[in-house]
Amino acid sequence: MGQITLNKVSKSFGNTVVIPGADLEIKDGEFIVFVGPSGCGKSTLLRMIAGLEDTTSGEIVIDSKDVSQVGPAERGLAMVFQSYALYPHMTVRKNIAFPMRMAKLSQQEQDKRIEAAAHSLNLTDYLDRKPGQLSGGQRQRVAIGRAIVREPKAFLFDEPLSNLDAALRVGMRMEISELHKKLNTTMVYVTHDQVEAMTMADKIVVLQAGVIEQVGSPLDLYHTPCNKFVAGFIGSPKMNLLEGPEAKKNKAHTIGVRPEHIEVSPKASKDAWKGTVGVTEHLGSDTFIHIHGVEGCDPMTVRAAGDVMVNHGDTVYLTPDAQQIHKFDDDGLRIP
Amino acid sequence: MARGVTNNRKIINTAAAWGIGLLIFFPILWTILTSFKTEAVAIADPPVFLFFDWTLENYSVVQERSNYGRFLWNSIFIAGGSTLLGILIAVPAAWSMAFVPSKRTKDILLWMLSTKMLPAVGVLYPIYLLFIKFGLLDSILGLTIVLMLINLPIIVWMLYTYFREIPGEILEAARMDGASLKSEILYVLTPMAVPGIASTLLLNFILAWNEAFWTLNLTAAKAAPLTAFIASYSSPEGLFYAKLSAASTMAILPILILGWFSQKQLVRGLTFGAVK
What we know:
The structure holds 2 protein chains of 2 kinds.
Chain A: E1 4-13, E2 16-26, E3 31-35, H1 42-50, E4 57-62, E5 65-66, E6 77-80, H2 92-102, H3 107-120, H4 136-148, E7 154-158, H5 166-183, E8 186-191, H6 194-200, E9 203-208, E10 211-216, H7 218-223, H8 228-233, E11 240-243, H9 245-249, E12 254-257, E13 262-265, E14 273-282, E15 286-292, E16 300-305, E17 315-320, E18 326-328
Parallel strand pairs in A: 3-8, 3-9, 6-7, 7-8
Antiparallel strand pairs in A: 1-2, 1-4, 4-5, 9-10, 11-12, 12-18, 13-17, 14-15, 14-17, 15-16
Chain B: H1 2-34, H2 39-42, H3 57-65, H4 68-99, H5 105-114, H6 124-133, H7 140-164, H8 168-176, H9 181-192, H10 194-210, H11 213-217, H12 226-231, H13 241-261, H14 263-271
């Protein structure tokens, strides 16, 4: 079991309030991702669940037991850190064995679990090496191995892929997702990378300045962001947000249109927005065109087909998909 | 051209380093040389540097007159005991200062260091009285405790500097892995800080070995270490420079050899934290 509930959990450092009061329900077996810009309190929230930070008020309940005052060791959770945090003086085998040694498991059981973890993480050949002799990806796998053998109620990941290069990051992302499918254990994952959040999560928690802005599945957040912040944060490239006459036409303070929901054409048409092509980024599969001169949103980004040919300075006409326009009121909240 | 300048600089630097090194080492060299002279040659004017009849007589006299072994044993016990005791107290203290600092940690560290700025003689009287009261005068135990306390600020400071270099996340990982505070310090922190702890041990052993104020004032016969052994050859009985030098040489030799073999570790210990 690995059900985690946060009830009005708050955190202050002196007079600085980092998390004013968070409520959250994490179901058993769920892969939940905390995402938000740096300094939004996502890591602090994770460390509070881990027990590495005290809560100022509120309660953290794991499997119907209030653990707010319980030390990290007794919470039955395992954590994977950004810096891997391996024990440099121990071999891979001893690193993986450490939590079991602390739990006083029999040597036979330890060996069995080490073999199984090493096998599933492709670490069998490296068991007698020290962390210093491993690559970044291997080190991260050792850290995951050390977490697996504890058979925890839940795994906590604190930006585990940030120190890896881009190619390795994609590979490890898949490995962690597969691990989740295999173990079916609750995972709480912190990242600032919304692509990681979208691709891995069952449920995403978007945070800003310590406040949970929205909780939902990746597609929920993509299709129905509850406010301007979530709308702008989820999706890559970012949603175009327009204010002014175009928004007023839609009876809103701000309207949002995702780059993929805008059609670009060299021919003028009724109600189309006129603009000038700025920088174009050709990715092969897609082309991102940055367009200047559209009133209320400069530059506006459009995602077009990979083979579209426009030149810097061309005049183009943009037509948004009327079904895909998001409307927000004066407070930035979604208008249904 | 530039290379020439650098080379010249290198030569000057090397020569200056050797010059300063020899200057510092000269008194020790002179002591060692004097220990091989007769008493008459030792006080000869002008002084004789190398060309005299070398003799081992002083060593045999010193060996006959005093029990070098007992003094040596006392020194080893007091220096070793006070250092080990200090480490046992300083590791948890430095751990808490490095990893769970409070608002006052910096103040406490400075205050601890400030006790080292006090002239030792300033607290001689109260400590002497305490020693009488607890029956610790001329005891190895008493001296071990005093020397441990005298060097404790340095041990805590050195370990604190080492511990600060260890990433806190590793200790947090240990906590998540179910390690108790004791296991965290014993299995994770200490093995990672072994080089630092070793240099701290070494430096404090040397400091305690060379300590003369307390060892001379709080001991008489039973617990007297090598510092007292040297002092016993100074003035009251007249001028015995050669014998005094022989005693001094015998007293400093063990620590000189230890220092020579561990100089790498020692230098690392002294510069750690300062140079990164």
